[in-house]
Amino acid sequence: MRWLVGWSSASTGLRPRQAAPGPPPHAPHGSTPDGTGLGYGTYAPGPGAGAESVGIDDEDGGLLTPVGARLLWGGPDPLWAVGDWRPDEIRVVGADADTRIAVLGTCAATDEQLRVGLFAARGGALRHLTAWPGSYTAVVQAARRTTVLGDLAGARPVFHTPWAHGTAYATAALPLADLIGAPLDIGHLAALLALPDVPEAVHDTTPFLGVHRIPPGHALILRNGAREIAGYEPVASLAVAAPATDARSAVDGVRDALVEAVRARLDAPRHVPAFDADPGPVPGMGPHERRAARGLPAPGMGADLSGGPASATLALLAAGLPGLPGTVLGHGSGAGERLRALTFNDLSAAGSGAGTERAAELAADPRLHHVVVTGAEDALPFAELDGPLTDEPGPTLAVAARHRLRLQSGSADHLTGHGARQVLDAHPARLADLLMDRRRRNLVRPVAALTRADGSATVPARVYAAARRLARTPYRAGIESAADRLLHRTFDESPGAVGASLAALTWARPGPAARWLTGEALAEVSFRLADAAARPGPGPGQRPGEFRARAALARHAADLRVLEQAAEVRFQRLHTPYLDNQVVRACRALPESLRVRPGARAEVLRTVLEGAGVTELPTGWGAPEPGAAATAARTGLRVAMAELVALFDTPFLAQTGLVEARVVRRALRGAADGDPLPVDGLTQLVSVELWLRRLATRRGSCWTGTSPRRQRAVPEGIAPAQRGALGAAGRG
């Protein structure tokens, strides 16, 4: 894991401290730690005043420092980078002694652009700091004001918590939970299971009480320890209608944004994994297989090539851009001229050959070096239940071993197509947006596609009625309806594509795991929704389809972040250009009439490739493979049934009052026997249980220093919940 962590201290209410033996780093000789010469402040360099001795001043008189941290700047508001950051992934540019910007991640801006942006940000303009190609986190310090910017998708979140008369912040929740010794927020876990796609249910909470998250598209602004959360995206006006967007220019904007996103990765320095000395030949294994067996990626740049349009577009764009897109010169095949394209062939899933065949046809391009990774039962979901502790729970914990097997044969910098469906496809709730705009003709194509899939003549009337009802339902009424469904345990939904579309035509709906939660847990989530209904709505000009689409994107970005941590391969970086800020903005500019067409994502990406000079695409480009993930999950569930039932013999989920163990065990056996139960809901239960077990067996902390306190999250352990514990946790 990699994160940044910092602190904004208060300017008042601090006890006096003796001057440190030496000046802080980069401070004039004779200055005091807080730079005032008065001997007050909470920035406290230790003996020698080295970078590693700068820490957060505990109220008990100790000094706390992040483990394995690199100090980016000191002073009363210090900032650290923690983890295995590459040298080119951290840049700090300063305008003067009190004004500086730190950018962590992949950012295509030059130092001069960072300096110009820093001057503008000092005056309060923030949005342009998020408009450079790449995926990064920007932190701006202007005197005693610190601004931390999150991204639009939520793949790079920002967390904060009060601490020692100030505010501590980080890009991970676990370090802050360790800092304050936060207990577990059982109410948050209940909301995450009951309503995973409803941001009102979790609001700004995390699995740890007292640690809060800023929403996507917002910035955390700290002034002398006081915090403020502000959005940096323009808000739609209710008085003046937005100008109509031309479809062609919108698609051109998506193409330009994607090309710049890929170019930002290609222009970054290439990396060769350390400890890459080949110990010698192994019978039946080439150099790439030997490297993958040692858990090391190949040097240079690579990309997924699953056969779908999202990953194929990135691979073809990267291979076609000028320069050497592939491996480092002298390492690997093709003398650095070919892009390493990775395809996973699931031998345990029947009917998965169409995507593999399309990938092989695409890989016939001489600029691509095709690598096929095969997996059998050992690569099924639930095949491996051990793994690292992630920052938060997520359903991808159950399939992390499957992804790790694939990524071990990837490259040091690996492009993936994650997020394309969420930023390009139309959420079914957008049909209500079309009705609100009186664009009934645009409903013809999606409704006709659903009619062909279902074969029923009543589909158009049912879909139109559901979309019309959603268009006329206020936000508050929709949230209250979801709370009522939880209280009355109303989880019945129609099967098939039509049933899923009808269920999605709501402001909020229960998730697939809600049916297995206890009544107390559902009541707690219903209470949270009642609080959400009393708060202001999603904002002026926000419509239900757009609102649901942004919530789905945020949920996917959070799951992807869990996947990156759970399936992490040493020395490897996963890149998701579709979740870059500029790509997300370009995709949001696509008109809804274009989005709702069947196959719109494949057509948009085809146009993107044609604009980049790629015209020959295989037959079946963009054809979906329905049920592939669900089939693999059900097969993995059946193969790992004994281990999963043992996992729920005495589960932590039951101890916390969220589920009844016998009910979950019965559901697992029923799903393995073929009962029509939502396997994705069971996957969520298994993933949260795995996360709780890893959290309970965790040793150590993210902090070290002289503080007498024991700095560790969930210090009391995961104890059985008492009556009313869920309600108390949710209100904390």
Automatic annotation (TrEMBL):
Alphabetical GO biological process terms: asparagine biosynthetic process
GO molecular function terms attached to this record: asparagine synthase (glutamine-hydrolyzing) activity
Family annotation (InterPro entries): Asn_synthase (IPR001962), Ntn_hydrolases_N (IPR029055)
UniProt domain Asparagine synthetase: residue ranges: 301-693
Pfam families to which the protein is assigned, alphabetical: Asn_synthase
Chain intervals for the UniProt region annotation (Disordered): 1-44, 272-304, 703-732
Name the record gives this protein: Asparagine synthetase domain-containing protein
Lineage of origin: Bacteria, Bacillati, Actinomycetota, Actinomycetes, Kitasatosporales
